[in-house]
Specification:
Keywords: ANK repeat, Repeat. This protein is mainly α and about 350 residues long. The chain is about 40% helix and about 0% strand. Helix 12 runs parallel beside helix 14 (about 310-320) and helix 14 runs antiparallel to helix 15.
């Protein structure tokens, strides 16, 4: 008996599965074709986008080649190859040196006017900063908002890079588009000392606020930001504690807190631009701690401002206009503290 073969006319499934998962994933987008005759190992390369860095597949054995300066310049722009001198995450200094040696543009700028040196200085890459400078990077090149590499390294508090830039003759008094020098933007005492020892002007004025010209000095900035150590250093090397900005404000006017005010007062400036002493200001704010501290420092309770008012007059005026929310016991204490002096 011949065995019957199964039928090959099986019914066709009328619908496709809802989701179709291919066995092989989609291929990686192709890398732009490089020029020829120059080899770089990619074993540990990374791909870079404008937003983030993504680990690349192992491209060991692959190579790129180049022959002309035009090729090199184009290659330096290829973020996806990880060879862009502007790439802030790229740490392969050997590749950077090779690119530069073969003609990549050291002082090329991005749309914000940043050069590779700006990015290296801001990112804290000391070796790259040294390499770029040794290859004639423009140390005092300015971004679109007129910041130099020294401004950026100072903002980011990279001490070693600041030292490298200063030794490369960076202009310590270069000003950004708000008329600020590196000394204006620092919040670090050690950086302030380094800048001043190398010629930074401690009394240089700035614009700082884009809406109006303020004329703040570094001491104004330090007082406003509560940078006590920086303030002490600036005063010690001769910063003017009585200088007024373009709104007639002294550093005392901008004092962020009592400790800042105390530093200024101890160094000779007890009066702000309106003739108010620190005690006038403390009385107007009903600040018990400040009043107590200032009196202990020997503040003049009889001092008169430009309106002829004493701190006690200011206290009484403030109480009359705000007595509905001020504790009477607090007012009595303030009044007696000032009166008894």
């Amino acid at each position: 008996n011949q065995q019957q073969q199964p039928s090959t006319n099986l019914p066709v499934t009328p619908t496709k599965p809802r989701f179709f998962q291919p066995i092989c994933p989609s291929p990686t987008p192709p890398i732009p074709p490089p020029p020829k005759n120059y080899t770089v190992d990619y074993k540990h390369a990374k791909y870079y986008s404008s937003d983030s860095a993504i680990d690349s597949p192992d491209l060991s054995g692959n190579s790129i080649t180049m022959t002309t300066n035009d090729d090199l310049d184009e290659l330096s722009k290829l973020d996806q190859l990880g060879l862009n001198l502007h790439a802030p995450h790229a740490k392969d200094n050997e590749i950077v040196e090779i690119l530069i040696q073969n003609g990549a543009i050291v002082n090329s700028t991005d749309k914000y006017g940043w050069t590779p040196l700006h990015k290296a200085a801001y990112s804290g890459y000391v070796h790259r900063t040294k390499v770029l400078i040794s290859k004639n990077a423009m140390v005092n090149a300015a971004t679109n908002d007129m910041r130099t590499a020294l401004h950026l390294a100072t903002e980011a508090v990279h001490h070693e890079i600041i030292f490298v830039l200063i030794n490369a003759h960076a202009n310590v008094n270069a000003k950004n588009n708000e008329n600020q020098t590196a000394l204006h933007v620092t919040k670090d005492k050690q950086v302030a000392e380094m800048l001043i020892k190398n010629g930074a002007d401690a009394n240089s004025r700035d614009i700082h606020v884009s809406m109006y010209y303020s004329g703040n000095t570094p001491l104004h900035q330090a007082a406003y930001n509560g940078q006590n150590d920086t303030m002490k250093y600036l005063i010690r090397i001769g910063a003017n504690t009585s200088v007024q900005n373009n709104k007639n404000e002294t550093p005392l006017d901008l004092a962020k807190n009592l400790e800042v005010a105390e530093i200024i007062i101890r160094n000779g400036d007890d009066v702000n631009s309106r003739g108010d002493s620190a005690l006038h200001v403390a009385a107007s704010k009903l600040d018990s701690n400040a009043v107590k501290c200032l009196i202990s420092l020997g503040a003049n309770v009889s001092a008169r401002n430009n309106e002829g008012q004493t701190p006690l007059d200011i206290l009484e005026e403030t109480y009359k206009t705000s007595h509905w929310y001020i504790e009477e016991t607090k007012y009595d204490w303030l009044y007696s503290s000032i009166k008894q002096r």
